[in-house]
Amino acid sequence: MDNLKRVTVISTFFLLFIVFYRPVGEQIPLQLPHWIQKLHHQLYEHFTHPQNAHFIFSVLTGEKKGLSPTLLKDLEMLHLRFLLSPTGLHLTGYLFFLNRKKRLPLYFACFFLPAFYSLKRIALMRLLSAFNRRIKQINIFYLTFIISFLFGHFTKSPLSFTYSFLLIGTFFSLKYMSLFQMFLAISASHLLLAFFQGNNFSFLATILSILLVQIFVIFLPLIIIFIATFYIYPSHWIEPFTRFFILLIHFCAKLTIGSFLTSSFMLLCIVWILLLKKRKRWLLVCLCLHAGLVHSPAIYVQASRPQVLLVSVGR
Predict the structure, then answer these.
(1) Are 223 and 92 within 8 A, CB to CB?
(2) Would the pLDDT of 130 be above 90?
(3) Tens of pLDDT along 206-219?
(4) What number of other Cβ atoms are within 10 A of residue 144's Cβ?
(5) Counting Cβ atoms within 10 Å, is residue 310 exposed (0-12), middle (13-18) or buried (19+)?
(6) Distance CA 86, CA 67 (A)
(7) Which among 192, 195, 249, 293 is least buried, having the fewest CB atoms inside 10 angstroms?
(8) Rounded to an integer, what distance in angstroms lies between the CA atom of residue 38 and that of residue 52?
(9) What DSSP designation does 297 have?
(10) Which of 84, 124, 134 is nearest to 104 (CA)?
(11) How far apart are CA 136 and CA 245, in angstroms?
(12) Stated pTM of the model
């Protein structure tokens, strides 16, 4: 629990810095090699439904061109926008079929990719774990982000750095927690991000996002098999799986309608009071304040544009 507090406090300082000192402008277009752009065109030609091809390409590269606004909105409602940017979660799925030793060269290869700082951080974390197992995982986590910060990753992509630090740090803090505490810890992280973005928050969306991430992890190795076989025999056999996952996202997003709450500071306090199991007498006060007195303050107007804030995540 102490680590979760530490991660939350540090992430809050990062978010405050971004809001007040680093206003985010327009997204810088991702420059992809020609052969990758050619793959996008080939997928578009072979798939029956263009949206499925765009989704596969977005998962692989982070390029969101061609994706429908409805899909992007539903992913944002479910706190799953990061699925469309290569992250450590994607790296785990891509290397699913390789043993630990064979993964090491690919971890080193990540450092030669343009941008994709999230992948580089996870690759560094895995390499540090592989070469020095005496260091605790939580210390490797902090060491990785210190190195990443020193190499200027925060300056180049502050949102990606902060999101990664908060979410991965929360994941490392879940050890020895009960299921209810795990849910509250994940909710606290999502709620903190929603608060600084000026977005509403849904506990149901948090639950559904956890389930969808588990399905996505199973889906990733299929994408790798598809891409590997696509150059040998162009086909679209993965399209039914892709369509199913997209429809599942739409369905889950509809389930969350009516479940969103104002991401007020008081709601964040309520979650932390439940998480710490202390001072429950303050719950009623926080609930009353959350009901109508305190909302996300107007000074966070720069952070109330989720479509701008989220664009650089995973880059």
Answers:
(1) no
(2) no
(3) 999 999 998 998 88
(4) 23
(5) buried
(6) 16
(7) 293
(8) 16
(9) -
(10) 124
(11) 36
(12) 0.79
